[in-house]
């Protein structure tokens, strides 16, 4: 998720989009789930019960939060631009028996800092280190965002470099596009979701394993509030462009001051957004069909749910929602 790109467009939003209403207590079973098979190439569940962590610093609390979920989640690990490859080894090793793992090679706001050759080299290093432990590699994030690069050609060349490395090693690939409800959400003529997808190289369109949508209400000004039918229609169009890909939601969350908003969201707003989007599962399954795999991947898991019993924790809400999928 871009912390300076998409939200820069929405700096003028009313504070109501991030309102901090009171939230009542919520409890969750937190019974934990069975340990998973850890063999390379293990099958993935459907739906994916996704959460995202952009930090593995508090490793033991992260593992505890993940392992205590009632159903096995898919944990999306953001490989930060300036963090050494080896820094993720312990967390990946500890998480793998408790979660399916997606590795985001570069977040969208970092991609523009890398050349094609640097993306290829970075991908080779991560795949060499963790190719037998990461279940899905996210090779491009929020690609149709002007902060990601200057043009589709520049952006797509980098994504293709990562794709080729992962596929050479037999890995699964995912790419994520922004869901834009309309022109209030973007700056460049090439950013509309479906139009951008059609510009992508044929090798990606024919070979990507997962195509996902990033959805942030406050990335647009005024804020977007896409319905399940609107999101489903976008996914159906993407399914025609990517005929063999599974389709899902790759990122949701409640943006905050670090993203450019005037104030941080309260627990009530976080719950509202989590319940709104994870709660679309049934409607999206009906609209999109058997290729829809869920996901959602709450971006702020490390901040909002680790430790799981932190003050104003979102963990009980997320556990209930993951269990319901």
Automatic annotation (TrEMBL):
<keyword id="KW-0732">Signal</keyword>
<dbReference type="InterPro" id="IPR017853">
    <property type="entry name" value="GH"/>
</dbReference>
<protein>
    <submittedName>
        <fullName>Uncharacterized protein</fullName>
    </submittedName>
</protein>
<feature type="region of interest" description="Disordered">
    <location>
        <begin position="21"/>
        <end position="51"/>
    </location>
</feature>
<feature type="signal peptide">
    <location>
        <begin position="1"/>
        <end position="19"/>
    </location>
</feature>
């Amino acid at each position: 998720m871009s912390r300076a790109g998409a939200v820069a467009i929405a700096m003028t939003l009313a504070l109501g989009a991030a309102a901090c209403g009171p939230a009542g207590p919520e409890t969750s079973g937190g019974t934990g789930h069975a340990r998973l098979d850890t063999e390379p190439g293990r099958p993935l569940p459907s739906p994916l019960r996704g959460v995202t962590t952009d930090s593995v610093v508090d490793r033991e609390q992260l593992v505890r939060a993940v392992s205590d979920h009632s159903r096995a989640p898919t944990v999306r690990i953001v490989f930060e631009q300036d963090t050494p490859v080896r820094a993720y080894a312990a967390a990946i090793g500890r998480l793998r028996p408790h979660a399916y793992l997606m590795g985001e090679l570069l977040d969208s706001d970092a991609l523009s800092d890398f050349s094609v050759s640097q993306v290829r080299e970075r991908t080779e290093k991560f795949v060499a280190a963790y190719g037998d432990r990461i279940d899905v590699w996210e090779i491009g994030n929020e690609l149709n965002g002007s902060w990601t690069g200057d043009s589709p050609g520049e952006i797509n060349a980098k994504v293709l470099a990562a794709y080729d490395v992962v596929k050479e090693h037999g890995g699964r690939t995912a790419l994520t596009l922004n869901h834009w409800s309309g022109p209030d959400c973007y700056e460049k003529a090439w950013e509309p979701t479906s139009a951008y997808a059609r510009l992508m190289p044929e090798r990606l369109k024919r070979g990507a394993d997962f195509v996902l949508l990033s959805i942030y209400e406050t990335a647009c000004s005024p804020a977007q509030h896409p319905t399940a039918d609107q999101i489903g229609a976008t996914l159906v169009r993407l399914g025609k462009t990517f005929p063999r890909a599974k389709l899902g939601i790759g990122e949701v969350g409640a943006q905050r001051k670090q993203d450019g908003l005037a104030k941080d969201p309260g627990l009530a707003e976080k719950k509202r957004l989590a319940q709104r989007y994870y709660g679309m599962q049934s409607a999206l399954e009906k609209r999109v069909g058997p290729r829809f795999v869920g996901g959602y991947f709450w971006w702020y898991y490390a901040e909002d749910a680790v430790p799981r019993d932190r003050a104003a924790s979102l963990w009980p809400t997320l556990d209930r929602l993951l269990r319901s999928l």
